[in-house]
Amino acid sequence: MATLLLLLLLLLGFSAAHQGQTHDGELSVENEDFTETILRINNGSSDFLLEGDVLIPRTRNAMKCFGEPYTCLWPKSRNGKVEVAFILSDKYDPSERTRIVTAMKDLESQTCLRFVPRVAQRGYLSIEPRYGCASLLGYTGDKQVVSLQRFGCINHGIIQHELLHALGFYHEHTRSDRDEYIQINWENINKYFVFNFRKMDTDNLNTKYDYTSVMHYGRTAFGTLRRETITPIKDPSAPIGQRERVSATDILRINKLYRCWSYIG
């Protein structure tokens, strides 16, 4: 019995050394970038997730925006602001709610976006602590869930990452001209996840490829045994997969996509 107890204590100690909760309640793993955090948390989700965290709606094709121009964008109000209505689940505690709202305010401070509590708007974000970190892509004109699991997803950069999906942005590593900037190491990708590296027919808004984008996945995304799946071409040592906050280019793209002309210098 004493031997068994000692073995259990050793196993718990090993687990604590490699995984635990940070000071702000995030589930962390040593040397893990935000890509790995999202993919690990989303592992086992019953939803079909494109590129690891993009929910595919059952009622429309999320790969293309059909219909009149800009129907997949959140509408602009008469005051020139893009009002994104939202409901924030009461299952979040006060500190979690503060982090989510702070991430929104950060986006508002540099764009014409305004996140407003839902009153009666038909189209709105429902931010809920479901399983994993995930979002639908673009405006659907109805309730659309942004899933931010309480432990792991309540991180400033991850929150903004999922909000940008809801605004209509794909991941940076799947943009149409990515082969000029990154090498995909196909041999290192788990065969069941190869589809996540399919290039998209994206509107790049005449902006440069951005390794520092909060939408760029890290080097080992979907890799077997954490092997490198994405390698920057021009600078193989360039850091990718940061989760601090949106980059300057992320902000520029929001302002171009939503025609926030007064915010573009």
TrEMBL record:
The active site is at E162. Zn(2+) binds at H161, H165, H171. Its cofactor is Zn(2+). It is found in: Zymogen granule. Keywords: Cytoplasmic vesicle, Disulfide bond, Glycoprotein, Hydrolase, Metal-binding, Metalloprotease, Protease, Signal, Zinc, Zymogen. Residues 61-261 form the Peptidase M12A domain. Its main location: other. SMART domains: ZnMc. The keyword Acetylation does not apply. InterPro entries: MetalloPept_cat_dom_sf, Peptidase_M12A, Peptidase_Metallo, ZnMP_hatching_enz. SUPFAM superfamilies: Metalloproteases ('zincins'), catalytic domain (SSF55486). GO terms for molecular function: metalloendopeptidase activity; zinc ion binding. GO terms for cellular component: zymogen granule. GO terms for biological process: proteolysis. It comes from the Eukaryota. Residues 1-17 form the signal peptide. Its EC number is 3.4.24.-. PANTHER family: DISCOIDIN, CUB, EGF, LAMININ , AND ZINC METALLOPROTEASE DOMAIN CONTAINING, HATCHING ENZYME 1.2-RELATED. This is Metalloendopeptidase. It comes from Cynoglossus semilaevis. The lineage of its organism: Eukaryota, Metazoa, Chordata, Craniata, Vertebrata.
